[in-house]
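User: Could you check the structure of this?
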Amino acid sequence: MVKTPVEESLGANPGDAALNPTDSVAMGVPSSRVDPDEPKARRRPFRALAHRPYRLLLGAFIVNQTGFWISHLSLQQLMVDLSNNDPLMIGVLFFALFIPAFLLAPLAGVIADRFERKRIVLLCYAFIVVITGVLCATTLSGAITPTIVLGLSVLMGTCFAVAGPANMAIAANSVPFEDLSSAVSLQSVANNGTRVFGPVLAAPLVASGALGISFGVYAVASAIGALLISRIQLPAFTPELSDGGIFDRIRSGFEHARRRPPAVAVLVIVGTTSIFGASHISLIPVFNEQVLGTRELFPWMMALTGVGALSGSLVTSFGTRSLRATGVQIGLYALCVAGFATTQDWRVALGTQMLSGFFFFWFMTNLQTLIQEAVDDALRGRVMSLFQVCWAGLLPFGGLGMGAAAKAFGVVETLAGAAVICLLFGLGVALRYWRR
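Assistant: Sure, the predicted structure tokens are below.
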């Protein structure tokens, strides 16, 4: 099992330090392993930047994710153009992009715990360069079709699925455990910062119809990200030796999550809010045209969503994380989505969408930090693959379901219904953990 320098000096497992003193004694873990300075560390959100491997990783992440958001918005716009803004086809696009995460993430977690994580990420970045290069060429030549878009989206989603657990594990491996909260929070801040910069950069390309150039930009960004990651020096990786097969290793990830609360609760919350919450983004292009009367708002609306998400990620570094607070945040997020669904004023729509991004990524970053702190590094890839299944792996079902519902019942009714479900779920979570 890989241990950071601080862990070596303390003789502690990462998951053990996440326990409070009472839980440590109850589980037979010496209370001295609990980090008494963790609340103080949480108030220093930039601690992770003191470590060069993390700075390189963060730089690669920012460059690659900016390219991704430019490409992602262009991909949605491309499907809007090819399908005449058919909500079902847009849902199918989301399904194609994210279904690999549902099918392959558990296997990707085993791979992340068995092979060198940096090489896994580098290989996936290389494949993304090739895939986006093909997407760029076919779009610029006019040979692009919905079938080609969906096929390349599946391949792209496969790269995301395989790289995801390794990428999250590298973030934890590149800093001492005491700086893990800072690393997760900053990575979320960077991700949501790119949700701002990416759409802003994509807006003129989308408006001018230069979608092929957007895909070329993503290819270049992935190549630069791969170069930065190749320079990262991490502690020597020693995989956990196991006589079991692939399915035994996948099962061990489930068992480890079950033994390390609140991991299972986190996974349930992430999965539910992914299906009925995050998937509402797939309907924004349709909502803009049918309710607000314009397609041009889409990239700017996504940029403002990123502004809110960036702010929500920053807030995570301050205050206390708890499942009770998460339930309240989910409820506030649901109210914002309801406000978005029931307005016909583009200014109100922009404001409520920005607030929904704020609350969604506030609780989502908290949940990712909670589960990262709770698990051992030797099984981190497998457990984080479950997180990826619940987050990205369930998005295709949510996107496809919302697309079908919008076509059958209307986009406003579908968004309002999803908001009600999230509101009731958030209240249920808050009440369940109110006295815990």
